[in-house]
Automatic annotation (TrEMBL):
Protein name (record): Gfo/Idh/MocA family protein
Keywords of this entry: Oxidoreductase
Gfo/Idh/MocA-like oxidoreductase N-terminal domain residues: 6-121
Species for this entry: Emticicia soli
PANTHER family: OXIDOREDUCTASES, TRANS-1,2-DIHYDROBENZENE-1,2-DIOL DEHYDROGENASE
The family this protein is said to belong to: Belongs to the Gfo/Idh/MocA family.
Domain of life, per lineage: Bacteria
Length: 327
């Protein structure tokens, strides 16, 4: 019989609620404890999801009996601090993306995880979706030949709420870190780290990047990416090879389908229906890692998070995106 994995959540905003809705649908998994800096929010969240333990401070959650792992869903600027707090208490961590605000913070998190022999993984949930796994499989089978170009975008019109994370520079707001990370990661996953990076941004009223566009150069390929809070884009991805291409439709980072276009053949669509948003796949990955006493995921290793943050740092530097007290 499989021992249930008991989860805790630190930070109880919208993303935490989406995550919790998926978590309670995963077999042999329970939401065991939640923590917020607001006692009212902690109590309301616990009541909604029938959570046995709730706290009005993050430090208090470590008092919870039989807690196995914590999901960190706080604003970007708090990720490193919150993850390190958990790791120093030898509590396994799934930390929401972006892993931290810069490479220095990520490297510190990785070092402390290894010093404490404790599991740590970035919550790049897209990585574990069946549609992404199928994309990799089709490329490995040479169905589209060698990948030559990737086009991917992510855009929506963000409401002007400057106090909220999306547009708030003090909370790590901006299009690149919030949504640009998805096309950046897709290219990194499929093509590796680029040899050259070009990036441009436009900035909104609050000072965060409203739109960031970037191009990656590889020895024999390119990737063209865009992230914006200023307009609704098709939010799709196209992976072009020399023998065909793969289309991930709107919204590609959570898509349930993909279509394969091979030269001189009829298109083939692969569907992967689900009753969740898709967070369940990363939850299952963490559960399996913990049950097998692994300290990091093979599919989303810490080395990948280091590369991803290195890439985001390079894009920010090229585009002139800076955060007070971070850079």
């Amino acid at each position: 019989m499989v021992k249930p994995t008991r989860w805790g959540i630190i930070g109880l905003g919208k993303i935490a609620e989406k995550f919790a809705n998926d978590l309670i649908k995963v077999p042999n998994t329970s939401l065991h404890a939640v923590a917020s800096t607001s006692s009212e929010r902690a109590q309301d969240f616990a009541q909604k999801f029938q959570v046995p333990y709730h706290y009005d401070s993050y430090e208090a959650i470590f008092k919870t009996p039989d807690l196995d792992v914590i999901y960190i869903a706080t604003p970007h600027t708090s990720h490193a601090e919150n993850a390190i707090l958990c790791l120093k208490n030898k509590m396994p961590v799934l930390c929401e993306k972006p892993f931290a605000m810069n490479l220095k913070q990520v490297e510190q998190m990785v070092t402390i995880a290894r010093e404490n022999d404790t599991f740590l993984m970035e919550a790049m949930w897209t990585r574990f979706l069946p549609v992404i796994m199928k994309t990799q499989e089709l490329i490995a089978e040479d169905r589209i030949g060698k990948v030559k170009t990737i086009h991917a975008d992510f855009g929506f019109v963000a409401p002007f709420t400057p106090e909220r994370r999306t547009l708030n520079p003090s909370l790590g707001g901006g299009a690149l870190l919030d949504i640009g990370i998805y096309p950046a990661y897709l290219s990194l996953l499929l093509l590796g780290y680029p040899t050259d990076v070009h990036a441009l941004s436009t900035f909104g009223q609050t000072g965060v990047d409203e739109t960031t566009s970037f191009i990656f150069k590889y020895p024999q390929a390119t990737a063209l990416m865009n992230a914006t809070f200023a307009s609704r884009t098709r939010t799709e991805a196209l992976i072009y090879g020399d023998k065909g291409y793969i289309h991930l439709p709107e919204r590609f980072h959570e898509s349930k389908t993909l279509t394969l276009f091979e030269t001189d053949k009829e298109p083939v669509t692969f569907s992967f229906d689900r009753e969740t948003r898709g967070y369940n796949f990363e939850i299952e990955e963490v559960n399996n890692c913990l049950r097998n006493n692994k300290k990091e995921s093979v599919k989303m290793p810490l080395s990948m998070s280091v590369k991803l943050m290195s890439l985001l740092d390079e894009i920010r530097q090229k585009a002139g995106i800076f955060y007070d007290g971070i850079d």
